[in-house]
Amino acid sequence: MQTASQNLDRVLVLEMVRVTEAAAIAASSLVGRGNEKAADAAAVEAMREALNSLYMDGTVVIGEGERDEAPMLYIGEKVGSAIGSGPKIDIALDPLEGTTITAKAGPNALAVLAIAEEGCLLNAPDVYMDKIAVGPGYPAGVIDLDRTPTQNVEAIAAAKGVRPDQIIACVLDRPRHEKLIAELRGCGCGIMLIPDGDVAAVIATSDPDTTIDVYMGQGGAPEGVLAAAALRCVGGQFKGRLFFRNDDERARAAKWGIADLDKVYDLEDLASGDCIFAATGVTDGSLLEGVKRKGKVMTTESVVMRASSGTVRWVKGEHRLD
Ligand SMILES: O=P(O)(O)OC[C@H]1O[C@](O)(COP(=O)(O)O)[C@@H](O)[C@@H]1O
């Protein structure tokens, strides 16, 4: 029997792309249709079918929700064609990251997936996470959740050898970020406000073409794990701390085995060991082109990255409709 690490090596790297492609293609027929649920359901069903064709004993550790709230790809669901006998793989997934974006035909909707050996992905509860992320090339500790946004911008600017007003931060456009936005503007920092999609936004910090230096603010904790898996592959720094709005959310975290509710998570706490991250664009965005239909062919653009080798593969797919 192959070990999980051999299986990551030999089989799953490129197979991951088929899985995200399938979800992206399924969601693409619902881009701009104003129906978030239908777009998500199409992506979920396609991703599940594709996962079930892979030789592995897979467990969804981050998925569509808990068993009683998600009929498919719920947390704990077993997937793969070799359950009980194949290599044990943990899977964090978001078949459609950006359901509202998709419904409104906005930018940066993705189908995303991260896999790792058993026990290597944080079983993050569905709560918010305070996040800060930068791409590669900075000294360790340049970002710190316990510092103010201004101090973080100043540290990034100093490390980059520029003024704070030459730093661009990306922030989700939400009322809860009013104070953060005001402080960033106060220190002269430029802000790219995005409507949704902070997995793509965190990854964008690693791509100089996007001009985004830092991602800051509160987004979903599950999305934090997915983004951390990607940053582990391309380099960068990430800090995350779970944010609880009530006791029910605290209880949910305890249920998933989170003992220290105030812990600041580094990249390796969220996604450790060898891991693979794959994404396919649903709509055009900073990371990937969206699905396009050209006559009888659908085109996709995907990326698949691996932490142990640092390899990043860009995959253009042509899918014949007939
Ligand atoms: O919309 P909220 O509650 O501010 O949550 C932020 C989260 O929602 C998203 O923007 C989109 O998530 P969905 O695809 O589940 O709608 C994430 O990228 C982000 O982490």
TrEMBL record:
Q: Which InterPro entries match?
A: FBPase_class-2/SBPase
User: What are the recorded GO MF terms, alphabetically?
Assistant: fructose 1,6-bisphosphate 1-phosphatase activity; sedoheptulose-bisphosphatase activity
Q: Which N-terminal stretch is annotated as signal sequence?
A: none
Which keywords appear in this protein's UniProt record, sorted alphabetically? Answer: Carbohydrate metabolism, Hydrolase, Manganese, Metal-binding
Write down the chemical reaction(s) this protein catalyses: beta-D-fructose 1,6-bisphosphate + H2O = beta-D-fructose 6-phosphate + phosphate
- Protein origin, superkingdom: Bacteria
Q: Which family does it belong to?
A: Belongs to the FBPase class 2 family.
Query: What protein am I looking at?
Result: Fructose-1,6-bisphosphatase
